[in-house]
Amino acid sequence: MATIIREKPSAHREFTVRHPVVFPLPSVQPRAVVALALCAGLALSGCQRGGEHGAPAGGMPPAMVSVITAQPETVPVDFEYTGQTVGVRDVEIRARVTGILQKRLYAEGRPVAAGAPMFQIDPAPFQAALDKVEAELARAEAELERARREAARLKPLAEARAISRKELDDAVSAEAIAAAQVLAARAQVSEARLNLGYTRVEAPISGLSGRAQKSEGSLVSGVEATLLTTVSQLDPIQVLFGIAEGDRLKLDAEVAAGRLRLPANGRFEVAIRLADGSLHGKRGHLDFSDHRVHPETGTLEGRAELPNPGGRLSPGQFVRVILSGATRPDAILVPQRAVMEGPAGKFVYVIGAEDKAEPRPVEVGDWHGDRWLIHGGLRAGDRVIVDGALKVMPGAPVQIGEPAPPAGAAPVPGGQS
Fold it and tell me: Distance between CA atoms of 272 and 278, rounded to whole angstroms?
């Protein structure tokens, strides 16, 4: 056993012996001691060299990432709103004379042709009124013929001074009065014939008929123009929709900033998505856009017209209106998986100098498929990390692997998991 005394230094580098500590020392050869000291020195030297040149010996290699190069492009833009279909012409069929409704002459909900009879109002009173005024017309015509003969008979007598001039003037005036009475009687006949014709209610246009509002035996009034039914022209068909005031202001601001370009004369191409998700087979165009804001809904009304062969669309359907034709010039888009959320908002990783990852705050817009529209934060030529971003740290070097696949393709091997 050997005794080793450890000395503990003080603050003034004075050494005093505190407590003797006794350790058993194995018998070690001098050569072994020298070899152990040399190995320890080499190991320490290796650690120092590793610290000087980057990651320590045995550390993780730079993360493998895939990138895209930001490039501006022209992107088509669609706008979608909720709308409701209406016939291009919705005609209300109303009674024009007062009488008893005798019969409905059409099948409700079925197509009708222009001029087809739809209702019959009792014509008997109107036929009687026509007969009466026709008799009055005959009497007035007879009176006119008599007055003409009287004036013709008195004219030569007045020229021969056999009668006074006054008698001839009275006869000529009576002839004129009789002629006026004939005209009035003819007008009454025309009115009576019109009223008789109005007892047969006909479709003014071709279209789809509606439900009858009055049944047989009902008294209908021409004074109040009683509604009998409606006829809607379905081909083409129109769609009415509203654009929120806030959306309109946002669009105007983007147009003014040059980030959005609308079609010439605002003539958007229009498609219709039905309630089951399918698209109407025919496309149309926006034909009206109101500039007045509706005081109750706060929206601006738009109207589109589309072909509707076969009447697939019916009036009153709720549909989704898709407006196409606008574009975003010089737009930069990146895959959605490249955009991350941080405490200060959305950001992406870009490859900076010496192939190191740098976080870059971005201002995002709308989605386009599976890509974000970037309004600010990126420039053309920036290399954006798409896959592998979760494996990198700010300022850490990265290793660029295969380019990022196009939008919608599967990620490359070694990408973000």
Answer: 9
In sequence order, what DSSP letters do the residues of 267-300 get, joined into one string?
--EEEEE-TTSPBPS--EEEEEEEEEEPTTT-EE
Give me 294's structure tokens.
Answer: 């509706």
Structure tokens at 416: 């973000």
| Tally of domains within the chain | 4
Q: What is the pLDDT of residue 138?
A: 97
Mean pLDDT of 313-341: 92
With residue 234 as reference, give the H or E element that holds it. strand 227-244
- Confidence bin at 24 (pLDDT 50/70/90): very low
Predicted local confidence at residue 17, as pLDDT: 39
Q: What angle, 0 to 180 degrees and rounded to 10, lies between the N-to-C axes of helices 165-198 and 124-159? A: 160
Please, how many CA atoms are within 13 Å of residue 54, restricted to the half-sphere of its CB? 8
Q: In 150-210, which ranges are E strands?
A: 200-202, 207-209
261, 76 Cβ separation under 8 angstroms? no
DSSP code per residue over 360-383: EE-EEEEEETTEEEEEES--TT-E
Instruction: Tell me if residue 333 falls in helix, strand or coil.
Output: strand
- Domain with 12, as residue range(s), is 4-52
Q: Are residues 324 and 343 in the same domain?
A: no
Contacts of 175 (CB under 8 A, 6+ apart): 144, 147, 148, 150, 151
**Cβ(300)–Cβ(242) below 8 Å:** yes
- What gap in Å lies between CA 398 and CA 391, rounded to an integer? 9
pTM, 2 dp? 0.62
Question: What does the alpha-carbon distance between residue 92 and residue 211 come to, in Å, rounded to a whole number?
Answer: 11
**Which residue has better confidence, 341 or 415?**
341
> Does residue 27 sit in the same domain as residue 142?
no
What's the gap between Cα 164 and its chain centre? 87
| Residue that terminates a domain, selected from 329, 364, 386 | 329
- pLDDT per position as a tens digit, 98-126: 999 999 999 998 999 999 999 999 999 99
* 390 and 344 housed in the same domain: yes
